[in-house]
Amino acid sequence: MEQTILHKADTRHSADHGWLQSAQTFSFHGHYDPERLQFGALRVLNDDTVNGGKGFGEHPHDNMEIISIPLEGTLEHQDSMGNLALIRPGEIQVMSAGTGIYHTEYNKDADEPVSFLQIWLYPNQLNVTPRYDQQDFSKKDKHNKWLQILSPDAGDEGVWIYQNAWFHLGDFDKGFEGEYHLKNKDNGIYIFVIEGDLQIGEQVLGKRDGFGIMNAETFVFSVLNEAKLLVMEVPQKW
To answer: Where is the Quercetin 2,3-dioxygenase C-terminal cupin domain (predicted)?
Structure first.
């Protein structure tokens, strides 16, 4: 039987560190909510804004798939694998932390904020060799269609990770009606509304709302106002 879970934007934990404003869908660092630990393999969904010239100092990660999707501004990344990169809107960055990495993330612009989604997934393989990848999707068509930006297959569209997960982005016009079909029927779907409004069944979703669907092989949606959507299809067991 289909099950759903709703995370309205204003129910997310809000953390204000001065240089960083973070809206956290799931428990993160010092904030613990037993009702919001994860959605299947999806462990972290943070909506972060970093002030000009500020950022995250060097810190470690291991055995986690870490995805960054910039929404505004330019994010500078540097890590212990020797990577130095700039990530801008229209791009996606992924790290398989594996046996362990150190990295920093900074706002490249001294005057303007940078906003990005920070997403962590549990991997299906532990202690892999750490790896980094980044791809530009800014010129790919996602108008009234789903654009795949992440998968478990290195030969498929988008970046790849050590998990049976697929991410899609779409920009949809008001009045558009569409659907999404799961790649794996045992997965769950988590829809995150970057911008706009839509309806799934009886549920109306607005900007920065999250909506999880389990035990369903598809979902149908109607766009109420021009919408930018991120769909994360993730295992419920791994």
So the answer is: 149-234
